Amino acid sequence: MAGEFDLISKYFANQQLKRSDVALSQGDDCALLQAPENTHIAVSTDSLIAGTHFLEHANPQWVGHKALASNISDLAAMGAEPAWVSMAITLPSADETWLEGFCEGFFELANAHDLQLIGGDTTRGPLGITLTVQGFIPQGLALLRSGAKVGDKILVSGCLGDSHAGLEVILDPSKRERAHASELERRHYCASSKVALGMMLRGKASSCIDISDGLVSDIQHIMQRSNVGAQIHCDKLPLSAELIEFTQDKHLAQQYALKSGEEYELCFTLPQHLLESVRQSAQQHNVMITEIGEITDSNTLHLFDNGQALEDDVAGFDHFRS
Ligand code: ADP
Ligand code: MG
Questions:
Q1: Average pLDDT over residues 10-19
Q2: What is 153-310's CATH number, 3.40.33.10, 3.50.50.60, 3.90.550.10, 3.90.650.10?
Q3: Angle between the 181-189 and 162-171 helix axes, to the nearest 10 degrees?
Q4: What's the mean pLDDT in 25-49?
Q5: If you average pLDDT over residues 132-155, what whole number do you get?
Q6: How many CB atoms within 10 Å of residue 24?
Q7: C-beta 99 within 6 A of ligand 1
Q8: Where exactly are the structural domains of the chain?
Q9: pTM above 0.90, yes or no
Q10: Residue 1 pLDDT more than 80?
């Protein structure tokens, strides 16, 4: 597009301190990177498209944060330490006000993780951002979806459901009147990162996933890859006070927690004997974790509320979803 190189040099090149493992970043046909020895490189790509993942008029700073947060969340879920990111961005026009806000949100989060933008592509078209992040994991210590064992406990970080409430506020202006509407909208875009927790779980968690589609959906990925079942105690789901006040109904808030996507919290499994030591480490890292269920040998997902099996189980949940 017109001014492509001006935009790149003004907004995307040389915006950050250089990492010592980046021999060459923007300006040539490829970046040149130095990988540490005995380390696997974790690589993940995610797109954020206007109209699908955010509304065109959304706060650009939040869009910059969210685009990167969703990618960093995948690194966290593997226990990886963020290192490099490349960006393919499509812009309808050279809207510099939008770009300034976007870069503010993007680089603030990148710098917080010593994550360097090492290259990309800038084109004209419908607004969309595709990022590829790369991070380091000592060989053999990646947190996979496939290691959950019968009897392991299921835990989640943070509180669940806020992102879904925020989405409702974004899509239904009448909900702006409700308690904590703007804070929940902010949380929808600005999830906090779980990198420290993921790294702390290396060698401990038997499986891990980040909650991007919703707990009920994501736990089933662990079940499939590990060939196990699971039960979740809905009364144990961690809910924020803001969500309960927003919904004014604890049961409804639990439903939000089960289905809320784009939470970017971690869901992981732990053998019982590691529960206490991981709880203590999480406390030292100031990360909230909550035990919400167990891995079973049934190959199905069962939901309980105060010890009572929920009649419709996941089918009931799906009905709620539609
Ligand atoms: P090429 O012709 O090889 O596709 P470009 O002209 O697209 O190169 O880009 C020039 C340089 O700017 C490259 O080094 C590329 O990595 C970098 N770059 C382009 N867009 C971005 C972006 N959005 N973020 C970071 N780097 C970018
Ligand atoms: Mg190019």
A1: 91
A2: 3.90.650.10
A3: 110
A4: 95
A5: 98
A6: 13
A7: no
A8: 4-138, 153-310
A9: yes
A10: no
